[in-house]
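Fold Annotation — chain and its backbone

Fields — amino acid sequence, structure tokens

___
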Amino acid sequence: MNAAVAADALQRPQMRPMRVDDLDAVMVVERRAYPWPWTIGIFRDCLSAGYPAWVLMEGGAYIGHGVLSVAADEAHVLNVCIDPARQGRGHGRALLRAMVEAARGRGACRVFLEVRPSNPAAFALYQDEGFNEIGRRPRYYPADNHTREDAIVMAMELLGP
């Protein structure tokens, strides 16, 4: 391997399982990305419950994370987050694809997620990756001025490898 290839490999983001000792750094990214972030307790509960969760690292820095739930033959993408300073570079797409493959590897036949209508970039990513809108959850998310925002429910069928 030449030096240029080795340097490129070191610069590419790496995904690894999330650990409890990652949570302070995960929360920094979560708070940068969302006006209504998950709490550290939610992440801790997900890890305690054994939900598959990952962090995305680039050059030693936390740049994103994801949490998945798998039960029976269904998976649910619970959280996909990329630091706003690192968005638009394909990191969210790579993380989502890895999470879908992890769901497939755990026997899921379909994957669900929710997204805010006010997040058109995420909605477009999910559509581009094969998710389809299947419904809405009224008043699902907190919003400005003490109001609530619907969630768009999306699903993808996992057909073959």
